[in-house]
């Protein structure tokens, strides 16, 4: 079957790319008739209309739909929902169970809205503009909307050199190119993170920033699409959606004229605020593909301790599995009792353990593989097009099936597998979980003829020798329902789902949609097919896995790290940036990657593989990367099977760099935890590009080699290979060196020299009060017993500063007690006010006031003079250091007189 099918795919793909070369011509598309608005009803907060084809159909990629329904809803003062559907057919839409739609305010309407919807009836076009200034943000004028069964097109004009961010997942610059640039949304296994191509996940949201304000546009659609940014038509920049299914479901977000972080919060209102993660998960994680056996793993743990480099969590890749089958251990290389011994050792030392879980499950009828047998009994596998036999792929264990996350028993099945294998009493008591290959990736189109894929299939560890478990153990109390809710599923009988007329620029294999993944005609229990839901597979595995982890340890926060995401995934899970190489360019581009996830898409628990995954790193690169990685929210060192060992202790410079940067990171861990708590509350970004804080400073718009860690700590790493200097930009504000608190006045670029390989420039932005631990510790458990100190970093404009601290037990989803403190500094008076429900059990050891002009005559704590020997002023740096040594359980005031 495969050779013929492959040939068919290849031919159709060729034809389709020919077709798109012809028809994607903007002149051809702009000559389409578009629509006319009829029967317009304006209810104030809502507008509806029929859109009727406005002339002779152009049928570029299928027949134009004759009549559409337009529905415009003012959902709140900052959000307009614009939806265009075909009322005559049941078209696919992202299911509510995947992304529940945001609620609208009853009082919303054009009178109170910050943005307004406008339209012309004939030819129909619409625009969204700012209510106050009438500045147009989005306009389809002169670009007719095209709506065909397998092709939707919407295009807007934007200013020349528009500042566009988002549309991830990509490995391109944070500020996107605007010349002949295509962002393709179609999840794929993208080893090497090639630039300009589709990667693992999909976030069809863009932010556009202007000096007059920042706004956002979210297209809620999970079908394959190309979003094109271009400037070759001489009319500024254009942004064009080319979507191969679903409906046009836009959320226009007003953002703000002065504070871009408002827009981040508005996006969180639509897709959900991010999950809080356990405090310990901010500790350092070590992993690699290729730890040969349990002895290897145990040695890495003891080597870290011997090197004095904090190790919070040890990870194991697929190496632990028996024949690479999930929910198994290799009895010879990773015998269960020895792995349990490792877990016990880690837990006794306040450390954690995490294992990899893949979605692809070995297809092993009659072999006694419990997971396969139980899943088969429950009938939870994704089905082939005919809906009767499981869809097969080829992944790590060889031929595999894939769970159907839409199946009504999928969660029960997954919970049960987690309870059996990750059982504290009889299995492996993991603390978090890592999910991979969930695009879903398949090495080839089964049955594979591709020699590369065949070779990978055969590259298996030695076979197991122990006897398999009883495959017939009943687990489900009742027979799984075999009902399939097909009635509501969209009808694709007339569509070409293998090779739609418009070919998106998929870079997997030959470019066919089904290449190296589940085929587009594979069927879910609810009747949906992968053509529509492909981009949701990783997201659904994420939410199901998070559910299974929450069921294992009810009431506790979970850490799930996934590879594939969709809009909204961050509400449940974190993400690593996937498989790249140990290169200096990837070291740098990881910053744009984490800024996208943590600054825009609401997936703040994010990090790149430190020191690089594929290929070999070296001492200098790994040292620089250890220090940059200390400011990824999720900090993990991870390497590929064929790469040299790259644990931080392998080289002296790298080891020292890691110790230094980890010390800084751990001192900031409560500040990071507070930023996550704020993000959970209102969607405020955990990482920020410079322009979020300096939206009028055009110098900042393209900077993606520096970033803010939390609201006010600026990270400015050395970027160039083996270099000890870097050009950094400090915007118009004071920036205080993290260690010395010496201030630099910003407003220009600075050439930093002699940045040795064990240090990274970290500065505190003026206007901040930071709660720091006095020093890093080996584990976060020990860290939480360490005293706090406060740093006051006054702003340039008015010398004020403020900050906050949120603390709880670090693990409970709903903590019984919490402590929430705010810090405000003005005119020599630091006011620490708050609620102290959670006992910190530690002291505030001191306060350091930066940029103090002269030594004060006296310092008081709650009105009482602080002894002179507890006050030290350094005139060279302007730092006033006041020792307090008071229990951190109530509010206090420190005044400089
Ligand atoms: C498009 O419309 C024409 C004429 O109405 C019809 O013959 C043809 O089958 C349609 N094509 C598709 C793909 O539906
Ligand atoms: C709204 O659209 C109408 C019709 O095209 C146009 O005359 C009017 O100027 C637009 N209003 C704004 C504020 O753009
Ligand atoms: C745009 O990019 C494509 C793909 O990289 C290339 O083939 C084409 O020549 C480019 N077109 C222009 C006008 O630069
Ligand atoms: C369903 O499709 C699969 C994959 O193409 C095939 O192996 C199987 O025989 C088919 N089953 C039936 C009942 O047609
Ligand atoms: C590296 O630079 C830092 C910061 O300037 C300095 O404290 C440290 O002593 C330097 N290390 C070495 C080995 O020179
Ligand atoms: C902590 O503060 C208490 C007083 O509140 C003091 O007695 C104690 O010595 C302090 N501990 C340290 C380590 O400074
Ligand atoms: C951003 C970056 O450096 N990406 C590189 C990742 O690895 C591939 C090779 O597989 C390079 O082509 C990319 O440039």
From TrEMBL:
It is found in: Secreted. Keywords: Carbohydrate metabolism, Cell wall biogenesis/degradation, Glycoprotein, Glycosidase, Hydrolase, Polysaccharide degradation, Secreted, Signal. Residues 1-21 form the signal peptide. The keyword Signal applies. CDD domains: GH31_MGAM_SI_GAA (cd06602), GH31_N (cd14752). Pfam families: Gal_mutarotas_2, Glyco_hydro_31_2nd, Glyco_hydro_31_3rd. One of its GO terms (cellular component) is extracellular region. It comes from the Eukaryota. Transmembrane segments: none annotated. One of its GO terms (molecular function) is beta-glucosidase activity. Residues 683-770 form the Glycosyl hydrolase family 31 C-terminal domain. Residues 274-675 form the Glycoside hydrolase family 31 TIM barrel domain. Residues 454-508 are annotated as: Disordered. Its EC number is 3.2.1.21. Residues 111-224 form the Glycoside hydrolase family 31 N-terminal domain. InterPro entries: Gal_mutarotase_sf_dom, GH, Glyco_hydro_31_AS, Glyco_hydro_31_C, Glyco_hydro_31_N_dom, Glyco_hydro_31_TIM, Glyco_hydro_b. It is an enzyme of class 3 (hydrolase). It catalyses: Hydrolysis of terminal, non-reducing beta-D-glucosyl residues with release of beta-D-glucose. Glucosidase involved in the degradation of cellulosic biomass. Has both alpha- and beta-glucosidase activity. Belongs to the glycosyl hydrolase 31 family. This is Probable alpha/beta-glucosidase agdC. It comes from Ganoderma sinense ZZ0214-1.
């Amino acid at each position: 079957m495969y050779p013929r099918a492959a040939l068919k795919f290849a031919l159709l793909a060729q034809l389709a790319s020919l077709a798109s070369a012809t028809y994607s011509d903007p002149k051809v598309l702009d000559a389409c008739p578009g629509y006319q608005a009829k029967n317009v009803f304006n209810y104030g907060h809502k507008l509806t209309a029929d859109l009727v084809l406005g002339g002779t159909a152009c049928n570029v990629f299928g027949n134009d739909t004759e009549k559409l329904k337009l529905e415009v809803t003012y959902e709140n003062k900052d959000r307009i929902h614009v939806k265009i559907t075909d009322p005559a057919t049941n078209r696919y839409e992202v299911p509510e169970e995947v992304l529940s739609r945001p609620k609208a305010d009853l009082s919303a309407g054009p009178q109170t809205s910050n943005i307004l919807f406008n339209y012309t009836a004939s030819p129909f076009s619409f625009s969204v503009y700012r209510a106050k200034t009438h500045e147009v943000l989005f306009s389809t004028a002169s670009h007719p909307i095209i709506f065909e069964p397998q092709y939707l097109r919407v295009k807007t004009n934007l200013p020349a050199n528009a500042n566009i961010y988002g549309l991830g997942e990509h490995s391109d610059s944070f500020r996107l190119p605007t010349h002949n640039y295509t962002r393709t949304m179609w999840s794929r296994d993208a080893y090497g993170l090639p630039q300009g191509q589709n990667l693992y996940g999909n976030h069809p949201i863009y932010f556009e920033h202007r000096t007059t304000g920042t706004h956002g546009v979210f297209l809620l659609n999970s079908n394959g699409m190309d979003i094109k940014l271009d400037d070759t038509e001489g009319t500024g920049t254009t942004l064009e959606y080319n979507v191969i299914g679903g409906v046009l479901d836009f959320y226009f977000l007003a953002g703000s004229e002065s504070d871009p972080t408002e827009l981040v919060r508005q996006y969180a209102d639509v897709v959900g605020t991010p999950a809080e993660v356990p405090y310990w998960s901010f500790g350092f994680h070590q992993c690699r593909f290729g730890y040969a056996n349990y002895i290897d793993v145990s040695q890495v743990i003891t080597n870290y301790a011997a090197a004095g480099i904090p190790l919070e969590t040890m990870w194991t890749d697929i190496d632990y599995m028996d024949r690479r089958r999930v929910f198994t251990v290799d009895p010879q290389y990773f015998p269960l009792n020895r792995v349990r011994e490792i877990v016990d050792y880690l837990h006794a030392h306040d450390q954690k353990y995490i294992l990899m879980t893949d979605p692809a499950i070995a297809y092993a009828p009659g072999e006694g593989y419990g997971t396969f047998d139980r899943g088969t009994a429950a009938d939870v596998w994704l089905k082939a097009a005919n809906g009767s036999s499981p869809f097969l792929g080829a992944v790590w264990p060889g031929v595999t099936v894939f769970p159907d996350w839409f199946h009504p028993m999928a969660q029960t099945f997954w919970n049960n597998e987690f309870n059996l294998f990750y059982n504290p009493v009889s299995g492996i008591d993991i603390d978090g979980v890592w999910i991979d290959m969930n695009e879903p990736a398949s090495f080839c189109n089964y049955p594979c003829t591709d020699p590369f894929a065949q070779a990978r299939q055969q590259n298996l560890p030695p076979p197991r020798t122990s006897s398999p478990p009883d495959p017939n153990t009943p687990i489900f109390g009742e027979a799984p329902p075999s009902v399939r809710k097909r009635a509501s599923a969209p009808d694709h009988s007339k569509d070409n789902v293998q090779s739609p007329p418009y070919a998106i620029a998929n870079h997997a294999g030959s470019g066919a949609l089904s290449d190296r993944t589940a085929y587009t005609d594979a069927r879910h229990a609810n009747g949906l097919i992968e053509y529509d839901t492909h981009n949701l597979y990783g997201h659904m595995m994420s939410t199901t896995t998070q559910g299974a982890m929450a069921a294992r340890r009810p009431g506790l926060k979970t850490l799930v790290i996934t590879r594939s995401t969709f809009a909204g995934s961050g509400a449940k899970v974190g993400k690593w940036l996937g498989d790249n190489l140990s290169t200096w360019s990837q070291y740098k581009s990881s910053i744009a990657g984490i800024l996208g996830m943590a600054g825009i898409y609401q997936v703040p628990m994010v990090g790149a593989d430190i020191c690089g995954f594929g290929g070999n790193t070296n001492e200098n690169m790994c040292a620089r990367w250890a220090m940059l990685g200390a400011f990824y929210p999720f900090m993990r060192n991870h390497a590929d099977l064929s790469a040299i060992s790259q644990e931080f202790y392998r080289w002296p410079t790298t080891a020292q760099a890691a110790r230094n940067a980890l010390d800084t990171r751990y001192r900031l861990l409560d500040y990071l935890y507070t930023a996550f708590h704020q993000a959970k509350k209102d969607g405020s970004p955990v990482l920020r590009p410079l322009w979020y804080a300096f939206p009028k400073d055009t110098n900042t718009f393209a900077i993606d080699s520096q970033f803010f860690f939390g609201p006010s700590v600026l990270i400015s790493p050395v970027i160039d290979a083996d270099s000890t200097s870097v050009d950094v930009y400090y915007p118009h504000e004071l920036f205080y060196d993290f260690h010395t608190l010496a201030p630099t006045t910003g407003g220009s670029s600075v050439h930093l020299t002699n940045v040795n390989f064990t240090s990274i420039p970290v500065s505190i932005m003026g206007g901040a009060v930071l709660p720091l631990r006095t020093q890093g510790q080996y584990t976060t458990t020990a860290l939480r017993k360490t005293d706090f100190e406060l740093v006051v970093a006054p702003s340039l404009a008015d010398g004020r500063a403020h900050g906050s601290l949120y603390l709880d037990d670090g693990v409970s989803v709903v903590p019984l007690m919490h402590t929430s403190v705010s810090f405000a500094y003005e005119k020599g008076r630091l006011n620490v006010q708050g609620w102290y429900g959670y006992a910190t059990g530690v002291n505030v050891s001191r306060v350091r006031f930066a940029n103090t002009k002269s030594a004060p005559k006296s310092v008081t704590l709650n009105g009482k003079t602080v002894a002179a020997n507890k006050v030290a002023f350094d005139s060279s740096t302007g730092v006033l250091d006041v020792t307090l040594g008071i229990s951190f359980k109530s509010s206090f005031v420190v005044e400089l007189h």
